[in-house]
Amino acid sequence: MVSPGEHDEDEADGLRKIIHVDMDAFFASVEQRDDPEIRGKPVAVGGSSGRGVVAAASYEARTFGVRSAMPSSRAVRLCPDLIFRKARFDVYRAVSQQIRAIFLDYTPHVEPLSLDEAYLDVTEDRKGLGSATRIAEQIRARIKADTGLTASAGVSYNKFLAKLASDQNKPDGLCVIRPGQGAAFVASLPVRRFHGVGPRGAEKMARLGIETGADLAAKDLAFLRAHFGSFAEYLFRAARGVDLRQVRADRPRKSVGGERTFAENIENAAALRETLDAIIETVWERIERAQTRGRTVTLKLRYADFTTLTRARSVHHWVADKAEFAALGHALLAELLPLPQPIRLMGLTLSALEQDEKTVKAKAEKDGQLSLL
Predict the structure, then answer these.
(1) What is the C-alpha separation between 140 and 142, in angstroms, rounded?
(2) pLDDT bucket at 227, cuts 50 / 70 / 90
């Protein structure tokens, strides 16, 4: 059913040819590439202090159970020989740009998801290679030659299946799901592999007797709506290997923000306000660099017990300047004081951005619907 490295895809007319490329342990692999002494050893990128968090882990570290977003203290308990490296985002961005240039040599339809992964629509075979599988193989080979890093790829006829496939044979693997094979492939997977189904979602499904894609496909839409609300339609389609989303090269930015994890939990009001001021400075600099404006400010707090709270406030005009952005952020914080328990993380985001509105207007003009606005 799933055959890495084959070329006889027998693609049906009208179907898209989608590749999902995912770099293998990207941040950690860059660190190992640049420092031969830590190659083959367990490496984590992130803070090594008591309240540090693992941003990325090498495959050697993952064998010990070390994972991204894990507190560094726990990671060290799992792997006492773990080697920490501070994140070098300027280096990661430079490598990501190298990889992006390779993608664009094969198709203009590239939708980046992050520095280390992207969707490519290669339905139009610009280089005449004959199949999406051959394109994926060539892209992986060029990434290895140009950057010294490995990438895994999934090839299929929609984005959902391509993303599942890229994770199937990691690291340094290729997986192809051909037309007609999607539903059977999904049926065999645990639902925790589905994009958007987190640990809590998987636990809830398990309580409902849903462990695999086949179990999910056995539930009708009414059942899914009753238990999962607006997420039901996505789950219903995913269980059948259906995904109608297009690869969007011009995907608009939805927000600009920043957050800070503390070395020690804080709850003192003065310390909270001081921390918020520091975050405001960082985020407003990013907003100016992005040359964007927005209408919604969102405050995020993560408590000591890891529960997360968000509060948002929207205005009818563009947030005028840093002073107004700060005022809205501080107003949101004031509404929550005194806090019921200390927090370990704070974040602030500006959303409902100007380019989102421009995108909506442009689409309306294209569709001939501007007169209805």
Answers:
(1) 5
(2) very high
